[in-house]
Amino acid sequence: MTRLPEFLQARLAERRAQQLYRSHKTLAAAPGPVALVDGRELVAFSSNDYLGLAAHPEVIAAQQRGAALGAGATASHLVNGHFAIHQQLQDKIAEVTGREAALLFGSGYMANVGVINALVGRGDTVVQDKLNHASLIDGGRLSGAQYLRFIHNDLDALEVQLRRAREKGTGNILLAVDGVYSMDGDTAPLAQMATLCARYDAWLMVDEAHGFGAMGSDLFPHAGSVAAAGLDQDSAPIVMGTLGKAAGNAGAFVAGSKALIDYLTQFARTYIYTTGMPPAIAAGCVRALELMQELPLQQTLVARIAYFRQRAAVLGLPLEASASAIQPLVLGCEKTVLRVSEALQASGYLVGAIRPPTVPAGTARLRITLSALHSEEQIDGLLNALNSALQREKNAAGEAS
Ligand code: PMP
After folding, report:
1. Which of 15, 34, 98, 145 is within CB 3.0–4.6 Å of 220 for a Cys-Cys bond?
2. Claim to verify: residue 253 and residue 132 sit in the same structural domain
């Protein structure tokens, strides 16, 4: 038996010794591409505000007007916390995603846990990509369903697991994947996955946290990776998206058929047993989604991604195969990643240093995220600072050997 204070101190010391101890950076307001850290202005390449909507004056004004409806929803959605503005947001999400209906959740984490647990349980199987977001993994583990994983984006490995699940019994199979991987920026091969789901009678659930707003199809330009892969409501029946990334706000949604939304309203415990979204957030999100449709923000983001990749390639930086706003540079060693991110901060750039257990051991990385608000000059500045820092690392390694 260990006393709680000693238990806590021992685990914290272990974390520090492993160089894995995490702490916050405290920012002083300033949304957009500039962050104020310890009184210094840094150009942030670390936020998920891909379209710059968190700082948009019309979103902020709509949110302020929304606050006049009350600071909070005062109850869960099914009691008396569901206002007309929530319904308006759900209808807008359904329109943008090309689905019949949508349902709001307090966060993406809650949406993933709630949806998986509502759809599968003991006797069923949930199949997941090994690099899925923690909220999908936790949802799957909590559900009591058999939990099977497959090598990241490997369709043969996925088929092995689907076959195994189907041969084992008559339970339902849910395949849950990220549409865009949050630490790698690559996309799931969704069209082929939908074909496999049809073959093995499995249900496809796609987490669009990083796809919604940032990519789509001609018909549904903001619907995410599912639309980009050409999938409709039949082939990708369960779409989860967050409002804290490209929409620049907070909260999440599930979009799908009317029957799916009706079912989740009855059975998703993280929807039922929690206070409704504050109406001001719903009001800000409605305006943000309208602005997505009205302004060429996504085109600007796509142009910035192309510019970043082209300039980084010229400098010979180790780019990953990512067409999304997430452009990681995998450096491997945790200490190197920390040193390079500190050097970048000293040069005026804020970039996330991502280490295990968020990513697999030996794949520590800088997670560079692009926004429609970044200028080409800011991107050039980051890349030059990065190039110098990496050059210094190389020289230091040369001297040490
Ligand atoms: N899924 C993915 C892929 C994510 O990256 C995140 C956020 N980091 C979530 C779900 C959780 O969303 P939220 O922040 O709204 O809880």
Report:
1. 98
2. yes
